[in-house]
Amino acid sequence: MSRVPEHVAMIMDGNGRWAEMRGKSRLEGHRAGVRTVERVVGWCRDAHVRYLTLYAFSTENWKRPAEEVGDLMKLMTLVLKTKAAAFRDANIRVRVIGRRADLSQVLQRMIAKIERMTDGCDGLQLILAISYGGRSEIAEAAYAYACAVRDGKVSGAEVPSDAVFRSYLYASDVPDPDMIIRTSGEFRLSNFLLWQSAYSEFWATPVMWPDFGKDDFSAALASYATRNRRMGGRP
Ligand code: IPE
Ligand code: IPE
Ligand code: MG
Questions:
Q1: CATH, domain range 7-133+173-226
Q2: How close is the Cα of 82 to the center of ligand 2, in Å?
Q3: Where are the domains of the chain?
Q4: For the purposes of burial, counting CB atoms within 10 Å of the CB of 148, is it exposed (0-12), middle (13-18) or buried (19 or more)?
């Protein structure tokens, strides 16, 4: 049995504090965070992780000042635009989960393009959570299920099973995250993958996201390998 998590999800937190500690702007912190993303993708591939989900922007992050929101949107648009060919050439399939309609037309187009370009890739799957919120994902799934009942596509006579309900969530073919990593010393999910994290192993580090290194990633994988995942059963 492999002890490598099949699906790793990361809450990339601490860009702002990393920048503040260095007298830099928050934008510089977010730029440094992008460089960590590039490194993390390589480590996951080398470790044979199959799915990597990265929390890039939450439904609550819209509350931030317009300038920072604008910087983050521009940065994400730029990354998707400039990295699409490199992801395809590296056989990485890129997908986006979240409330797409919240995003600018140009960002929506970049997302559609990178998803199309990397559609046939069968190496690592990189899932970017943009304008993502677990509560909104569950509400959207419940609404879609209600619509299916209304339209006579499903009977609705019984409470849907986990397998049926899952099929209404975003990227529902992706297995639940085996491990969730959070940087910056916080111990909370911040509305990340609420349904899917039911049995995820949690690993947190005080390291700020731009400083998250290979040794931290290796420590997380080593910790995962020691976990006894009972899933409610008996060992
Ligand atoms: C994470 O860094 C990136 C996003 C949430 C978009 P933060 O911007 O939250 O950095 P801190 O938590 O303020 O240090
Ligand atoms: C979580 O970080 C969201 C992302 C990493 C995109 P936040 O910085 O938004 O989380 P809180 O506000 O500390 O809970
Ligand atoms: Mg934060």
A1: 3.40.1180.10
A2: 25
A3: 7-133+173-226
A4: middle
